Amino acid sequence: MSLHQTSPHDDETGKKLGMWLFLYTEIILFGGLFVLYAVYLTVHTEDFVEGGKQLDRLFGLANTVILLISSFAVAASITAVQKSQKGVALGSLAASLLCGLIFLINKYFEWGHKFEIGLYPNSERLLDGPTGQNIFFGLYYVITGLHGIHIVIGMTVLAVAMAYVQAGKITPTRFALLENAGLYWHLVDLIWIFIFPLFYLII
Amino acid sequence: MEAVKSFFETPAPSRFTGIWAWLLTTDHKRIGLMYLFAIVFWFCLAILLGGLIRLELMFPGETVLTAELYNSAFTLHGVIMIFLFIIPALPAIFGNFFLPMQIGTDDVFFPKLNLLSWYLYMLGGVVAIASLFAEGFPDTGWTFYVPFSVSTQTNVSTAVFAAFILGFASMLTGLNFITTIHRMRSPKMGWLQIPLFTWSLYATSWVQLLATPVVSITLVLVMVERFLNIGLFDPSKGGDPILYQHLFWMYSHPAVYIMILPGMGVISEIIPVFSRKSIFGYKAIVFSSMMIAVAGSLVWAHHMYTSGMSDTAVFVFSLLTFVVAIPSAIKVFSWVSTLYKGAIQMTPPLFLSLCFIYLFSVGGLTGLVLGAAGPDVHVHDTHFVVAHFHFTMFGGTGFAFFAALHYWWPKMFGRMYDFKKAYIASALITGGFIFHYVPMFILGLQGMPRRYYDYLPQYATGNFLAGFGALFMIIGIALMFYNLAVTLRRERNAPADPWGGVTLEWKTASPPPLHNFDRDPEVLDYPYDFTGVKESQDNQANQDKQSKPNA
After folding, report:
1. Residue A139 contacts residue A37 (beta carbons within 8 Å)
2. A101: domain CATH number?
3. Phi, psi (5° rounding) for residue B465?
4. Which of residues 240-259 of B touch A (CB under 8 A)?
5. What is the DSSP string of A133-167?
6. What is the tens place of the pLDDT at every residue in B346-379?
7. Shortest Cα distance, chain B CAs vs residue A100, angstroms
8. How far is B244 from chain A (nearest CA, A)?
9. Is the Cβ pair A142, B224 closer than 8 Å?
10. pLDDT tens for residues A15-39?
């Protein structure tokens, strides 16, 4: 017995509405950190500029490009599913997962290098240096760390969506799951687009 | 209608039986009841802790608790009451059960997510308890203020993590409700035909989505600080402890509206039903709910007048705090105007609602004393604050919870309870409440600080009296739960509509069948139109007579 014309299983708009609401909470989550950044930038402007110079812009730029490519690949996979091109969809999803992996590897080397030169939370170099730089790198690790966790979550979600495409559960008429996975990935990408200038390009 | 099997007899999904039919269910009614039992458990535990605190304070010096244990007891009392009882109580129990019914549908939009929220809630509770057995429960108070929360030796990380999980559960519930109201409402029901309880849940859900992530990230930062010691809030390392307070209250003040809005929704349902009169100012109540949701998000810093802020900021936040009192007052006036010239039928839910209006008004008015920057400096961090927020949280949300329990009990379980015991219990709770908290107002004005383990001799009388009030309250609450619980062993005797309600949940059997309605319910043009009820009032009176003697 159904009370309504449509059951929620077929309501793709409703599923996307739920996802958008969730994305909204993610933005607020990072928003709290950006508030901290804004306040401390005002208090320690000089130190933040100094700190920004010590970050490797090449690494940051590379990661930005990688994430943009991966976002494109996810969008392509959705179009491919709509056109019933399963192979292309799977290929694009694999490409975006690969991009995510490369991003994390890059991050690993970048963090590793910072650790080597003594820039890590509570390190002697930071404690003895100007307090503003301590805050700058503290925020750098917290924000990029949290973003990294989101990359891992996003990759998991994409992998699940990929399995669904493979199993044929995502069809040209029912692809809300893939689209929601894509939306999540775009959000993770978008947050990086804010992180990159705030930390790497600050002058 | 009697032929329809209730949801107790029809598990969903149907392949599960026994305990699994509950633990793996996606039926919003079963999930609501599972919340009910879990939440009542936590509520009772926190009441006992509160009783212990009052017992300790009845006499000067050490009575039953050591100072460390006392600190942990009031922290645990606060954490449980806020995160495990008041925030989830009305949305998670009654929202889950009745929101889909009030909008004429058969479930929430994401039933599996709904079950996941319940598990997250349970996990949060288990983690909170686990921290008791590790290095002792935190002694920070429920606000986890830095720098103490970062430096104390007790197990703050686990407790904070528990609060993080519970926040996630509440956020997912809010997300689920908003999507449900938007996408699954009966096609015949327009926005201004939605019952007020559902409207209040809609406003609440938005606040949950708006505010919860802020506290999540703040609590994560407390954990990060404890493990990595970055110093984001440590002045010697370039941080600012006041920022923590801002971030914390940015959520936790809107959170008090998460607590009270659904309670206001419950009262808005009960009052018109027992006045047999359409609610006064339906639209005003709807818009005031949304206004509270918006304005309530902009007043957080009134918790921090004495923390160190610019005078301009204090002025602005004080002004905004006064503004947010307006929509709350609109509701109180609407309820009272609904009662005026109504055909009032006294029942336990209405009695509790009347107590709510009185206690909540006292809580609201004393809130203005605190919202005004001048007097606040005098009573900040005294027992006056404790009395104020108990009047709003307990006298408000707590009483709304009791009223909802008595109002919807026959619908949820299909059984009517004994009215006489319900009245006695309600009177005991209300009387005990006043006896318990009014002395605290006076103690606060005299200058007794909150959270202190011991006090000067001049505060002895007030604390002694408050202890007695607590005793009456605990007896009353025990009697109330007993009176409700014994009905579970009886036969189902409640008719589909024992009160003469007109919202959709009363148009189906008690307890409802699995899909809530056996045929599409008729949606009234106006959700509180009692003309049909009045016509069949004789009929109704007969039904009441049949059900009362059995109960």
Report:
1. yes
2. 1.20.120.80
3. -65, -45
4. 240, 243, 247, 250
5. HHHHHHHHHHHHHHHHHHHHHHHHHHHHHHHHHHT
6. 999 999 999 999 999 999 999 999 999 888 989 9
7. 24
8. 9
9. yes
10. 999 999 999 999 999 999 999 999 9
CB B164 within 8 A of CB B219: yes
Query: Does A150 map to a domain?
Result: yes
Burial (CB count <10 Å: 0-12, 13-18, 19+), residue B214 = buried
Residue A34 lies in a domain: no
Residue A185 belongs to a domain: yes
Query: Which of B170, B176, B217 would you mutate first to test chain A, the one with the most A CBs within 10 A?
Result: B217
Domain extent for A73? 65-111+141-193
- Cα–Cα distance for residue pair B149/B140, rounded to 1 Å: 6
Longest dimension (CA), chain A: 71
| Domain B20-550 of CATH type 1.20.210.10 | yes
- A contact residues 120-179, partner B, Cβ 8 Å cutoff: 121-122, 127, 130-132, 134-135, 138-139, 141-142, 146
Residue B61 backbone zone (phi > 0: left; psi -120 to 50: alpha; other: beta): left
Q: Does residue A83 form part of some domain?
A: yes
Residue type, B154: T
Count how many domains chain A has. Answer: 1
Q: How many CB pairs under 8 A join A and B?
A: 117
Tell me the per-residue pLDDT of A138-193, one tens digit each, with 9 for 90 and over: 999 999 999 999 999 999 999 999 999 999 898 888 899 999 999 999 999 999 99
Nearest to A191 by CA among A153, A138, A158, A161: A153
Is the Cβ pair B236, A131 closer than 8 Å?
yes
At A144, the amino acid letter reads T
- Token readout for B323 is 């503004």
DSSP-assigned beta bridge partners for residue B382: B449
What residues does B449 pair with on adjacent strands? B382
Residue B376 contacts residue B239 (beta carbons within 8 Å): no
- Residues of chain B with pLDDT > 70, as a percent, come to 96
- The Cα-based distances of B251 to B31, B208, B254, B259 in angstroms read 27, 9, 6, 12
